């Protein structure tokens, strides 16, 4: 065979070192040196004194053409110096390859003390034949869980950035209950801790305790929402699967009482004939199964669901609203606001296919309301409707009693008219009850016996924006007691207040001017038939102001009671 010499411009045998870089720090105390050299070469690694060969490799490839090489050195001991130098050389074509010195730094040795096994505890009995081994260690290290014969008992784990490791395995039913594992950590190619753990597996669970209690095989269920129930081994998982292996219901877990349950709702287009395969998994192994055939109810038509009240777009009479309608017997009806919250308690359609539910809206609820009402039959929606309606405005609170400021208590007024003044709530309407004082003991029956409100009621007495009111009325000379009330509207229907404190005053006729005196005084009003601003007539119990004057009938009694307190 002819030998091919290296090109004159290249290093003999073309030896290069690409890793580790000269002067760098390596990641592990097990160091691999790699680069390129001509095919057919032998690469050797020797110590810095060139007295000991540490490793060598024969490089394949085309003779005389560059080929990759890789040589792994024996792991450096924990007490080895961090700074290391090796000599890389070898042979090519029967001649030595010129030496290259490579210097690098080793990482500090990982401490052994950080390796622990936290589960299972030595000497413990685990709850399942699926066992999770956990512990702590050095980030990036590998952890091996081995049987006593050296075979793997679980997959190799790697310590994460939080210094934690975990690996899981499932022991077969025929595996002995007494188990021993040897667990070791390998850091930078060197062992960095180990532990032996003895533990006991649970005995294999017999299949016989697994049952399916509902639905019964061959039965017809009442609803398209089906609950599967049964018994099993505590902690086991139960799977309800369709014949194609997909889940028919959520996975269930057997509770401490040995019971399991899971529920699913079949769609409207699901066939009425159903078959499910149900199995129990205990400790990672199947521990019982059953096949159940059952029939779903037919889908209920939507058309029988209606909302009869309130009508869409209507205004209801009260803030207590009753929702009514028709539906399918036994179905539930939900009245929801636009946010999906319940606007009224859930209703159930009765034997006459009727449903009803009532709610009272708070005073601060908006007058404009929208509800979404739906019927649920057999676990599925069977009709819905949206209803918009308007609530009445909330009744205002009772206004405070007004105050009469003029005339004042005990004042004598001269003339044929009296100007009443006082204070009240801005925007409110004032009503006055004027009673002859000598009849005050009979004020209540007099007021009740008074003629009904006249056809032409008085103009409203309105409290101005500053809270003041005034009215001038024509009266007969007399000793009077007057009381006032106020309301939020001219009819006195809302916010009607209690009566004011009564005011007693006297009205005396003016002294006529002497005949021919030429004083120019106006003539006195007709004392036998004064003009009454509120009533248009004469009456010993005079009511003025609020149109619904009959509401003042009871004020006579208030005058009597307050008058008595004054007299006493």
TrEMBL record:
Keywords (A to Z) from UniProt = Membrane, Transmembrane, Transmembrane helix
Task: Show the stretches that span the lipid bilayer.
Answer: 542-560
Q: Which domain of life is it from?
A: Bacteria
Q: What protein name is recorded for this chain? A: LPXTG cell wall anchor domain-containing protein
């Amino acid at each position: 065979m002819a030998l091919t010499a290296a090109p004159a411009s290249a290093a003999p045998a073309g030896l290069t070192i690409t890793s580790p870089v000269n002067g760098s720090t390596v990641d592990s105390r097990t160091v691999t040196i790699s680069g390129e050299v001509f095919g057919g070469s032998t690469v050797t690694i020797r110590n810095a004194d060139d007295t000991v060969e540490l490793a060598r490799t024969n490089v394949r490839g085309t003779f005389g053409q560059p080929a990759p090489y890789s040589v792994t050195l024996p792991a450096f001991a924990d007490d080895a110096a961090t700074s290391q130098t090796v000599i890389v050389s070898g042979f090519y074509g029967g001649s030595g390859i010129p030496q290259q010195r490579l210097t690098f730094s080793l990482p500090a040795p990982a401490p052994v003390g950080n390796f622990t096994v936290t589960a299972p505890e030595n000497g413990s009995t685990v709850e399942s034949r699926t066992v999770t081994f956990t512990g702590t260690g050095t980030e990036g290290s590998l952890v091996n869980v081995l049987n006593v014969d050296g075979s793997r008992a679980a997959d190799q784990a790697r310590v994460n950035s939080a210094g934690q490791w975990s690996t899981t395995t499932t022991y077969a039913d025929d595996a002995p209950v007494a188990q021993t594992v040897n667990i070791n950590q390998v850091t930078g190619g060197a062992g960095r801790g180990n532990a032996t753990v003895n533990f006991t597996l649970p005995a294999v669970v017999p299949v016989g305790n697994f049952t399916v209690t509902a639905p019964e095989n061959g039965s017809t269920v009442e609803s398209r929402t089906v609950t599967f129930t049964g018994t099993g081994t505590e902690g086991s998982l139960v799977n309800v699967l369709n014949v194609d292996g997909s889940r028919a219901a959520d996975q269930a877990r057997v509770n401490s009482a040995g019971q399991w349950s899971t529920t699913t709702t079949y769609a409207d287009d699901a066939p009425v004939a159903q078959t499910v395969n149900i199995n129990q998994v205990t400790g990672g192994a199947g521990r019982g199964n059953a096949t159940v055939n059952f029939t779903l109810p037919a889908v209920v038509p939507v058309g029988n669901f209606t909302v009869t009240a309130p009508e869409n777009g209507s205004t209801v009479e009260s803030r207590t609203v009753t929702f009514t309608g028709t539906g399918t017997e036994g179905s539930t009806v939900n009245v929801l606001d636009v946010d999906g919250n319940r606007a009224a308690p859930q209703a159930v359609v009765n034997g006459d296919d009727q449903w009803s539910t009532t709610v009272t809206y708070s005073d601060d609820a908006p007058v404009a309301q929208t509800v979404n009402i739906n019927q649920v039959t057999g676990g599925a929606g069977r009709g819905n409707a949206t209803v918009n309606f308007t609530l009445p405005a909330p009744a205002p609170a009772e206004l405070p009693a007004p105050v009469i400021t003029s005339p004042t208590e005990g004042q004598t007024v001269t003339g044929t008219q009296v100007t009443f003044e006082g204070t009240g709530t801005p925007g409110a309407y004032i009503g006055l009850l004027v009673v002859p004082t000598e009849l005050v003991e009979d004020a209540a029956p007099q007021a009740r016996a008074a003629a009904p409100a006249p056809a032409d009621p008085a103009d409203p007495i309105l409290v101005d924006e500053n809270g003041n009111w005034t009215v001038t009325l024509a009266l007969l000379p007399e000793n009077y007691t007057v009381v006032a009330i106020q309301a939020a509207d001219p009819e006195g229907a809302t916010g009607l207040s209690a009566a004011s404190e009564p005011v007693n005053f006297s009205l005396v006729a003016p002294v006529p001017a002497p005949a021919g005196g030429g004083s120019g005084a106006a003539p006195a009003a007709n004392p036998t038939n004064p003009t009454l601003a509120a009533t248009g007539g004469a009456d010993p119990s005079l009511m003025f102001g609020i149109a619904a004057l009959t509401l003042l009938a009871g004020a006579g009694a208030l005058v009597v009671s307050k008058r008595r307190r004054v007299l006493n």
